[in-house]
Write a structure and sequence with these properties.
Helix content: under 10%
Number of helices: 0
Number of strands: 11
Largest sheet: 7 strands, mixed
Oligomer: single chain
Mean pLDDT: 95
Low-confidence stretches: none
Shape: globular
């Protein structure tokens, strides 16, 4: 199994920045893509950004140019730098890791709240 532990988040001002971190442990050799997802109250969990083991990234349109996902060389941690924050970025952010065999995001962190005040 893979365990994911997020840190960062909290309260930020609109137009400000925040940084999320996620550290993986356990069976890290099975991890393929990693990513960040978010869920606002009453909404489903949506993809924010993903990054492959080779560093290829994918972003949802609403965060392009504002958020940057990165991954360390050992492939055991993933980060999300969030700039120019908007009130609509307020959500619980989840770190996810995919099994490299299936490509399915099977492993999740506990979630961290990001609240952007306008």
């Amino acid at each position: 199994q893979v365990q994911l532990e997020e840190s960062g988040g909290g309260l930020a001002q609109a137009g400000g920045s925040a940084r999320l971190s996620c550290a993986a442990s356990g069976m890290i050799y099975i991890i393929g893509d990693m990513g960040w997802f978010r869920q606002a109250p009453g909404n489903q969990r949506d993809m924010v950004a993903t990054i492959s083991r080779s560093g290829n990234t994918n972003y949802t349109d609403s965060v392009k140019g504002r958020f940057t996902i990165s991954r360390d060389n050992a492939k055991t941690a993933v980060y999300l730098q969030m700039n120019s924050l908007k009130a609509e970025d307020t959500a619980v952010y989840y770190c996810g890791a995919a099994n490299w065999r299936t490509g399915r995001f099977d492993y999740w962190g506990q979630g961290t709240q990001v609240t952007v005040s306008s």
